[in-house]
């Protein structure tokens, strides 16, 4: 009986759907204080924030605000396949927030 339960659990784990591959957003932000500073960045999002730009903005804005940045807009939401093409453009703000 115990062997049967163990086999059933092993089979369930082996056939379970793989975990989500990841969700990311690219965005623009600003910081004021003396002179205006702007940046373009890429951030990883929690699964709950991947369904719309509004959800992405709600998740990202507090992270940016914690370091004095104001989110201007979320440009797009994408999967891991879009990371490499945005890496150079995001520079120091690639996956920083």
Alpha carbon gap, first and last residue: 50 Å
Query: What is the tally of beta strands?
Result: 3
Instruction: Give Rg in angstroms.
Output: 19 Å
Structural class: alpha+beta
The total count of helices amounts to: 3
Residue stretches low in confidence (pLDDT < 50, at least 5 long) are 2-20
Helix and strand element order: HEEHEH
Question: Percentage of helical residues?
Answer: 25-40%
* Shape estimate: globular
Strand content: 25-35%
Task: Tell me about the largest β-sheet.
Answer: 3 strands, antiparallel
Q: How many structural domains can be distinguished in the coordinates? A: 1
Compute the average pLDDT.
Answer: 85
Report strand order across the widest sheet: 2-1-3
Characterization of the model:
By secondary structure, the chain is α+β, with helices and mostly antiparallel strands. It has one domain (21-93). Helices cover 36% and strands 28% of the residues. It has a 3-stranded antiparallel beta sheet, with helices on both faces. The protein starts with a helix and ends in a 7-residue tail after the last helix. Residues 2-20 have low confidence and may be disordered. This is DUF4177 domain-containing protein. Keywords: Signal. It comes from Frigidibacter mobilis.
Q: Tags for this entry?
A:
single chain; 97 residues; alpha+beta; three-stranded antiparallel beta sheet; 3 helices; 3 strands; 36% helix; disordered N terminus; DUF4177 domain-containing protein; signal
Write the layout of secondary structure elements.
Elements lengths: L1 H14 L7 E9 L5 E9 L7 H13 L4 E9 L4 H8 L7
């Amino acid at each position: 009986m115990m062997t049967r339960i163990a086999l059933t659990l092993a089979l369930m784990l082996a056939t379970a759907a793989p975990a989500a591959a990841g969700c990311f957003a690219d965005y623009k932000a600003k910081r004021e204080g003396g002179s205006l500073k702007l940046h373009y960045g890429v951030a990883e999002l929690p699964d709950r924030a991947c369904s719309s730009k509004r959800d992405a903005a709600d998740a990202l804005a507090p992270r940016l605000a914690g370091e004095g940045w104001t989110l201007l807009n979320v440009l797009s939401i994408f999967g891991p396949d879009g990371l490499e093409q945005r890496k150079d453009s995001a520079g120091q703000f690639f996956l920083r927030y």
